[in-house]
Design brief:
about 375 residues; alpha/beta; Rossmann fold; 2 domains; seven-stranded parallel β-sheet; six-stranded parallel β-sheet; 17 helices; globular
Length: about 375
């Protein structure tokens, strides 16, 4: 089988590499190639130099040569408007390659209309991947004008209606779509995010170094992550915190940290394959968002056996069972988070660590997820 993957609108291979996401995102496709589930994979991206970046990655042994990159046309105007227009024209520009494919898949919902149009033009079955339901997140956060949220809802309804299969990383997103978009249950499948359990395992590559006495956060520095309350919580407890990642909240965080006089470090982004050694230097991991889909950073921290602290919200409470494999703050305010951290500090870390690792090995390994996705591929091909 030959699979075509449509990148999220405006996303590029270059951005994957720079943001440290490349090693994680490529993993499922290389596993399918290794298992002979797929014979080749084509990535349709929005980067003008992605083809040469892919060539360099292949030469370095970091990318399977059977993954082909079809980049954004160099002569086509770029920028926000250019990418939006190209997302509609992509099925026409890339017709030679699209006709050769057996299956189509999207990476996220934004820009997935390109795959829907390709499905109509070339008669290829489409697997619509939804890492998270954007309209549900925005309705929850209430940070966008009403017209934008409604337009987002209409767009998502169109995508669900004209895809063959819709896959979700979490039960709550699948239930939300089934209820609010009237999507048939026969069309909905749960395919969770995955972890390379061999790479993300306790104490790997740490050379038995002592754990640092700091709390760890890894993720996007953005408002939905509730980082200002996390910063306030650790400041109240006088506990140091390291934040790995980048995003629009960076400057506000820097000012707030200075204002509070907190021992908090902004560590920037690192490649995903370097994270296991970093994660294993810590005892505690915190993800105190207002809402999540199926957070990969939390899966990786649990796989490494860290004591994880989260908020009792959608997406996090699907992974953390309070007091069993981690700890949940009852609310998202700083005081509730600080109480959850104190409970984590007093816990039996061995018991919590073992329970967290067991959850990952049972449900979220790359081999388990790849096997489930293979079954979906065969279902599409035989329908």
């Amino acid at each position: 089988m030959k699979l075509g993957l449509f990148f999220t609108r405006s996303a590029s291979l270059s951005e994957w590499v720079q943001a440290g996401l490349f090693d994680r995102e490529k993993l499922i496709y290389e596993r399918h190639l290794l298992d002979n589930t797929l014979t080749s994979v084509v990535w349709f991206t929005y980067g003008k130099n992605d083809y040469h970046i892919a060539e360099d990655l292949i030469k370095m042994g970091r990318l399977d040569a059977r993954i082909i990159v079809k980049e954004y046309p160099r002569w086509f105007p770029h920028g926000r408007i250019g990418c939006f227009v190209y997302s509609f024209l992509l099925p026409l520009f890339q017709f030679r390659m699209l006709r050769k494919l057996d299956l189509l898949k999207t990476n996220q919902l934004d820009g997935a209309w390109a795959a829907v149009f390709a499905r109509f033009l070339y008669g290829k079955p489409l697997l619509l991947r939804c890492g998270y339901v954007q309209s549900a997140l925005e309705c929850h956060l209430n940070r966008l004008p009403l017209w934008r949220t409604r337009l987002m809802h209409l767009t998502e309804n169109f995508l669900y209606k004209f895809s063959d299969i819709a896959i979700f990383s979490s039960n709550h997103d699948a239930e939300y779509v089934a209820t609010n978009f009237k999507v048939s249950s026969a069309k909905i499948y749960i395919l969770p995010n995955y972890v390379d359990e061999c790479l993300f395992s306790p104490k790997i590559n740490t050379k038995n170094l002592d754990k640092v006495d700091r709390i760890l956060f890894i993720g996007r520095l953005s408002s939905e992550k509730n980082l200002l309350n996390l910063v306030k919580a650790v400041t109240l407890l006088k506990i140091p915190l390291d934040l790995f990642g980048s995003g629009p909240l960076k400057e506000e965080l820097e000012k707030y940290i200075v204002e509070l006089g907190s021992d908090i470090r902004l560590m920037g982004t690192v490649s995903n394959n370097k994270l296991p050694a970093i994660i294993n230097r810590y005892q505690y991991f915190a993800l105190t968002s207002f809402r999540e889909g199926m957070p990969k950073s939390l899966l990786e921290a649990m796989s490494c056996g860290l004591t994880c602290i989260g908020t009792d919200v959608i997406g996090i409470n699907e992974l953390i069972q309070d007091g069993v494999n981690g700890f949940l703050a009852k609310k998202t305010d700083a005081e509730s988070i600080s109480r959850a951290i104190e409970r984590a500090q007093a816990a039996n870390h061995v018991r919590i660590s073992e329970a967290a690792r067991k959850l990952i090995l049972n449900k979220f390994t790359i081999s388990v997820v790849a096997k489930k996705e293979k079954a979906l591929f065969l279902t599409l091909m035989n329908s």
